[in-house]
Amino acid sequence: MKRSIMSVLIVAVMMFTAACGNSEGSIFKDGIEDYISTTYTLYDTVESAENSDRYARIYQAENTGLSAVSDSLQSHETPDEMSEINNGKQIFIYDNVFVTLTESEEDADNIMIEVAEQEFARNNYGPSFFEGYLLASLISNIFGNNWYDSRSRQCSINPERCYGGYNSAGSYVGKNSTPTIRGSSNRGGGVGFGK
């Protein structure tokens, strides 16, 4: 009896170990946000104009080209939607998470990785952020049918509240602050206030 229980336990442990080794079936597989936060250096954060408790997080992949970072993210988790690489930028949509890769203006081998939850993207990005990357119909399906027109009107009335994405210099539409970036000070900020 003890041998049969022990045999069953050994088989169960072996099956569990094999399942965990398979990245597709692993119950311990990290989400894309966890993968990015443990793989790349946190560079800055951008505060939401609508909800100060919400942020987009900016990570940096140093000495790595955009294609390599793109492949790494796709190898870890297949996105629900993704754009082509265009003008040094690519956008991924995962379950309720937008990930944008942008080449640094100073060095194409330094990639800025912006991670924003769907609520942040809906309330802060301007429609132009997606133009040339993702279809307006796809964005409307995610954010609601009238998002594109409604957000375009809001951006034309109050352009400083329409976030255009982070760039390598840390300057973007939004308020000014002085975030600490690996011990040094750099101009940056969040969405919500004019420069």
Automatic annotation (TrEMBL):
<dbReference type="Pfam" id="PF14042">
    <property type="entry name" value="DUF4247"/>
</dbReference>
<feature type="signal peptide">
    <location>
        <begin position="1"/>
        <end position="21"/>
    </location>
</feature>
<protein>
    <recommendedName>
        <fullName>DUF4247 domain-containing protein</fullName>
    </recommendedName>
</protein>
<dbReference type="InterPro" id="IPR025341">
    <property type="entry name" value="DUF4247"/>
</dbReference>
<keyword id="KW-0732">Signal</keyword>
